[in-house]
Amino acid sequence: MAEFRMPSLGADMEAGTLVEWLKQPGEAVKHGDVIAVVETQKGAIEVEVFENGVIEKLLVPIGQTVPVGTALAFIRSAGPPIAAAPRPIAAAPPQRVAPAPIAAPSPARIPAAAAAPAAGLKISPAARKFAEEKGIDPAIVQGTGPDGAIVFVDVENAWRRLEAAPPAKAPVVAKAPPKGIDLAAMRGAIAAAMARSKREIPHYYVQHATDLGPATEWLARTNADRPPERRLVLGALLVRAIALAVRALPEFNGFFREGRFQPGERVHVGNAIALRGGGLVAPAIHDADRIGLEEIMVKLRDLVNRVRAGRYRSSELADPTVTLTSLGDRGADALLPIINPPQVAIIAAGTPVRRPWLVGDEIVARPLLQLALAADHRVSDGHRGALLLADIARRLAEPGAL
Amino acid sequence: MTRDELKQVLSEEIGNIAPEVDLAAVREDEDLREALDIDSISFLNLIIALKARLGVDVPELDYPKLRNLHGALDYLESRMGRS
User: Fold this and answer.
1) Smallest CA–CA separation between A11 and chain B, in Å?
2) Crossing angle for the helix pair B69-82 and B40-54, nearest 10 degrees?
3) Residues paired with A297 in a beta bridge
């Protein structure tokens, strides 16, 4: 019997609300099937299963918000389990996660751990940040995380309680699932993840101006004969070039977790996609080093469509091993990005602009792209970072080989 | 297809890629990509949708002609008139 758990879809997620079951008890499921839809600060996520088997029991009703790691359903395994571990999901420790608090704990029920001095409190960075923002003393918050640790949802619940003028009698879980994306919550999630990144990761930055002429000319030639649905955009070239470059320089691909660098076994390139109305998500294109340019383009278009519709899959959000963020055609020259933990590198592309450039001794107008890298100094140095950007630039200069 | 009908189709397809935009507030001479804040992939999706709806395959070289609503309607009208 396997437990199907609330996945962690990035460093900034600590809980999710179940909004839809797509499979019912008795139904067969196989590896990769979408079986539930979960509402998070990033919108509705389609959650996939990593076992083959039959749904035995659904444990969490629709509308309930539960912490990451909570068992959502039992799945009776069919045959031997899949040998390969699921994608590296940053799951909470499996055993100790309590369900979301249903009733508001009264001050009298503060657990011993919470009464300890603030310095000794077990509290997640996101929860601490949120508590600071809202002026909530963590000592009054009851932790429901592993070993009684205070997680984001605990502080959020405490904050809601304080906000509600007369103490709310309705159980927290009874509220309807949010419709669409809660932009304030998403902003809070981005803020928490980025604050953690800036606090914990010693960033260094490298920037490199790249002549985009060969790439834009190649794209124009290639697209001239193609119907719109088969045309390529620069973003696909960037994803492919980055994937190949980090495969060659593996210290930029993977996670920094548990005090050490864990190189990614595969290359999943996250694409930061701006949401209409604000906020962003960075779902992954899986195995971008192995699939070709055409397939990357199809996936990219599909991702953008689904992100705009607020619907993407759990595995896409959970496991980028490196991220690309682009300003697109209308923007500023350069962007200096912030690493999305637990990743160790992020590459930013500015807006391509025509600028004077030396070719030989001649000054000519060329389309220039400012590439910038932010990387984790615990894992690599600026020298290697410069090699990475040079490698990406070299690949962009030979687009036919991508 | 009249220009008004064409405008209706264009508005619907723009609505699909930029649902929250009030097209009535976008001037006909305003830069569409900036007014709608759409990236190259969304713009490509619009081109794909226009081909499906109108049978007009807009080559990349003609993208600048779709810079604003006025230009886009002129362009689509002339392409449909020819085909």
Assistant:
1) 27
2) 40
3) none
Helix axes A213-224, A382-397, angle to 10 degrees: 40
Alpha helices, H only, A68-182? 112-115, 125-134, 152-163
Residue from A221, A222, A276 whose CB has the most chain B CBs within 10 Å, to mutate: A276
Q: Is B11 exposed, middle or buried (0-12, 13-18, 19+ CB in 10 A)?
A: middle
Residue A355, beta-bridge partner list: A366
- Convert the pLDDT of each residue in A28-63 to its tens digit: 888 888 888 888 777 678 888 888 889 988 888 877
Chain A neighbors of B60, CB-CB under 8 A: 220, 223-224, 231
A110 pLDDT exceeds 60?
no
CB distance A216 to A367 below 8 Å? yes
A121, A138 contact by CB (below 8 A): yes
Is the ipTM higher than 0.90? The answer is no
What does the angle CA A253 – CA A256 – CA A258 come to, to the nearest 5 degrees? 150
**CB-based contact B39 A227, cutoff 8 Å:** no
Inspect the interface and report whether the beta carbons of B42 and A227 lie closer than 8 Å: no
The tally of CA atoms less than 13 A away on the side-chain side of residue B63 is 15
From the number of C-beta atoms within 10 Å of its C-beta (0-12, 13-18, 19+), residue A181 rates as buried
Asked if B42 and A308 come within 8 Å (Cβ–Cβ), the reply is yes
